[in-house]
Design brief:
By secondary structure, this protein is α/β, with parallel strands linked by helices. It contains ten helices and 13 strands. It is elongated, with a radius of gyration of 21 Å.
């Protein structure tokens, strides 16, 4: 039987892809009749930025709830959590997270948020259950009718990049330079949009002036973010050490052609089928993948269509199904045996 009382221990409720995962999964479980609570250090009065119908509680109250399961993606927080009698589940979402080895040792069950993360853990002798995905298909879907069709009015190709310059592993600057290089190489004008939700509310400073027209969209609402994806012709991601690339998945679900690295996208980005996947993260390599798509709107449209069909397999409901099966198997065995091997 699936657990009925699920506690999610998170470091904060900030606007980040990793936090979205737990808000989305928590909402799915709540709709399925479970009792779900998110525990955060500053829980008093905290409210999430996407719909969540469960409780938001202060972390110190976690030991008082009699929870069936406690799940956390943050190693330090996971190690400090105390939930008597609960199955302790470490949800691995980022390679080489500080305290990862200790969290895995302490876990009753380890989940991984992508095929790449499972492979990373397997190299360290850790067997993790598949908890890849997902994307909110009610929010992120193509426009109807979709204006991004071959033969549309002559205009610059609208390109979109996640603008988190403060986190170098997001690859924002590599993606921007790649778009610049590709536009010059193809002789095709582009219009670039960068979006972000910076803590201070100010547009991040780019390392230099850009050679293509660009704008910033800061702190978009969920509807505004969905509209950005649906309006873009091309989304470019240059992440490294990503678990699951939410932005690439959301863009693909919105019917946008995607150029990306393998990091965080292996589950859904198949080169020349659902996305243009660059083997390397360098700007020149990404530009080589972008250039043909700037020149050929029909190829761009076909890639977007095939990507949108593929990503429909990765709803949050299906992710919750996989996690439920793993939890039922472990809880059905009686005592919480620890089978996760220590990372070496």
């Amino acid at each position: 039987m699936a657990p009925q009382r699920i506690a999610l221990a998170l470091p904060h409720l900030g606007v980040y892809g990793g936090i979205r995962r737990f808000l989305e999964l928590g909402e799915v479980w709540f709709r399925r009749g479970r009792e779900v609570a998110i525990f955060v250090p500053d829980g008093a009065g905290a409210r999430p930025w996407v719909p969540f119908s469960g409780s938001i509680l202060p972390l110190p109250e976690l030991p008082l709830g009699g929870w069936d399961v406690v799940i956390s993606p943050d190693p330090e927080l996971f190690l400090g959590c105390r939930a008597p009698g609960a199955l302790r589940v470490y949800y691995s979402v980022l390679e080489r997270a500080s305290g990862e080895r200790q969290a895995i040792r302490a876990a009753d069950l380890v989940l991984a948020n992508s095929a790449g993360m499972r492979r990373y853990l397997a190299r360290r002798g850790v067997t993790a259950e598949d908890a890849a995905g997902g994307v909110n298909l009610s929010w992120f879907r193509p426009a109807a009718p979709d204006p991004r069709t071959p033969g549309a009015a002559d205009r610059p190709v609208r390109t979109l990049v996640y603008g988190r310059l403060s986190r170098r592993r997001k690859g924002t600057w590599e993606a921007v330079r790649a778009i610049e290089h590709a536009s010059a190489s193809a002789g095709v004008p582009v219009a670039l949009t960068l979006f972000d939700a910076p803590p201070d509310g100010a547009a991040p400073a780019l390392p230099r002036a850009l050679r293509v027209p660009h704008r910033w969209v800061l702190n978009p609402t969920q509807q505004g973010l969905a509209d950005l994806y649906r309006e873009a012709d091309l989304f470019v991601s240059a992440e490294r050490r990503a678990g699951w690339c939410n932005t690439a998945a959301e863009a693909m679900a919105s019917g946008t052609a995607v150029v990306c690295t393998r990091s965080g996208t292996e589950d859904f980005a198949i080169h020349d089928v659902t996305a243009a996947v660059s083997r390397w993260r360098w700007a020149w390599a990404l530009a080589r993948a972008i250039t043909p798509l700037l020149r050929d709107p029909a190829r761009r449209s076909a890639l977007a269509s095939q990507g949108a069909a593929r990503i429909r397999e990765f709803s949050w409901e299906r992710t919750a199904d996989r996690i439920d099966r793993a939890l039922e198997e472990r809880l059905g065995g009686g005592a919480h045996g620890r089978t996760a091997q220590a990372a070496r």
